[in-house]
Amino acid sequence: MWLPCGGTSNYIVTHFRRRLFKAYFRDLGRRRCNVAAFMPEAAGFDGVSDRSALQEFSVSNSESFWAAVARQRLSWIRPFHTVQDCDLSRGEIKWFVGGQLNVSVNCLDRHVHTCPERVALIWERDESGSEVKVTYRELLEMTCRLGNLLRRHGVKRGDCVTIYMPTCPLAVASMLACARIGAAHNVVFAGFSAEALAERIRDAQSGTVITVNQGVRGGKVTELKKTVDTAVQSCPAVQQVFVAMRTENPVAMTARDVAMEEVKYQTNWILIKILMSTAGDYKWHAVVQEMLKEDVVCEPAAMDSEDVLFLLYTSGSTGKPKGLVHTQAGYLLYAALTHRYVFSYHDGDVFGCVADIGWITGHSYSVYGPLANGGTTVLFESTPIYPDPGRYWEMVQRLKINQFYGAPTAIRLLLKYGDEWVHKYDRSTLKTLGSVGEPINTEAWEWYHRVVGDGRCPVVDTWWQTETGGICISPRPSDADAEIVPGMAMRPFFSIKPTLMDTEGKVLTSNDVSGALCIAQPWPGMARTIHNNHQRFIETYCRPHPGYFFTGDGAYRSKEGYYQITGRLDDVINVSGHRIGTAEIEDVLNQCAAVAESASHRVFSQFVQRLPKTRSGKIMRRVLRKVVERDLDGVGDLSTLDDPTAVQEIIQGHGDLCGKQP
């Protein structure tokens, strides 16, 4: 139909434009509402209308992003006046300067005010089916009693307390008690030898150690108190050792020992009194009285944002431990934010991180991240195959776990046992599956997604390090329908700016390239220094590429801009100018039906019955490197190995392969 005049035409066009504008702004409003529902702070960020824009804003306006998140998500005693004061080239990192807070208050008190009977911890003991649940109120009481006990025995602000304990509620309370009174903690994995423990105690200058009589893992008992007794003989600074009871077996006590609590490791203090009256003539009764006479109120110390929260020792390629330092506010905030958004954690969920608290994964995603968010977190004391290969999945069914976070080595191990152990149990509560520790190969990723997650749970292959404090690259957070590529970490977390460097130290700006993985700007969760050796911190992380944080890992950036970790740069194989990472080689090898798992180093090729692994399931690549280099004296501490005979078998096989003993 022809329009009779131009005026009508103009009216129709104008009316149509108005409708378009209204529709546009309605859609914009909906998207802004959606992103604000996803992250409430985003409502105050100019130009942020969706998650993609939120990510861009967090990188380009890092200070504004973290200031808003810190004010919203942490409880401050005194507000900060400067968001960050950082110079990566000099290794100077400060966040939320001028602010004061207490980490234990943020993890406990504020939740006790709103939901005191919410379960904070579910202790999945080694004995299957015997879980212990601890509410926020109970955990606060335990933390306060322990904090008062430490104070009464002379532990003061600025001291460092070494914790040598299995994963359990009292270990968590010990960490939080240190935070409450202003002492730093140094958690040492309870599988380390006396020599390794002593080295860490001495370097941390600890005057106090907390331990248990014995540990129990995989049905085996380990003599932790005896290990501590041996270790402290070469640690003259140690004045006292607090001892709790994990088993009923008595241990020898010395003049420096202080008994902490009762035989059954209960967390309900009224139950302790009942147990005392029925336990018979047992010399640990005095210990319980020692704890019970402490008040359930412990005044929290006001800590500066950059005061030390904890030291955590990690071994370099030489095996010599370095004590990485994490501080109060920045670490806690980053652990909490990554926990909530990478795993899509919601109130009421049960979060199952199966890492030991002796590692950074246990610190960030078994303790601090979940508790800062008021979550319910599982403490896993056992192994993936005790009493059988269905242990994880039976636990998922019984505890109704929603997010499961484990290591690729454990996934590969369970894959060997077949699907029936998984299908035996109901896993319908699972919503997210996570992978941590090293790159996960495609076969294991697909089995994890298809069999464990029934093809409906996203798998987040997370990349981060002890040095980073929390997850830096992961497929989530992103839109619910966003692509996830098997075996790739993919997307940087909020404010993280990954950069790839070539062999000459130049920034690689294009996609479909590989290089050294660096991070171009600071973030709150990163380590501040190496204890007693800031120069080593600078030389290791800041000097290789001035102005960038050097991770030591290699990475590939795909055509789409996704990141895939290719392994440690000191393990890269150079073939005709092409740098091939160990993860890439292992991914191909693991696709062979005859290969359960692999670990590669340079041109070394050897078939073995088993790989050397820590008790947490991580492959000890340092050991393989030293075997190949025939530097057996440089292998370092092997006390964390699950089975030391695996190393002897590899040494023997390598000698046979080379025609002589190394």
Automatic annotation (TrEMBL):
Domain AMP-dependent synthetase/ligase, chain residue ranges per copy: 109-523
EC class name: ligase
Alphabetized InterPro entries for the sequence: ACAS_N, AMP-bd_C_sf, AMP-binding_CS, AMP-dep_synth/lig_dom, ANL_N_sf
GO biological process, one term: acetyl-CoA biosynthetic process
EC number: 6.2.1.1
Domain Acetyl-coenzyme A synthetase N-terminal stretches: 53-107
MF annotations from Gene Ontology: acetate-CoA ligase activity; ATP binding
The protein's name in its UniProt record: acetate--CoA ligase
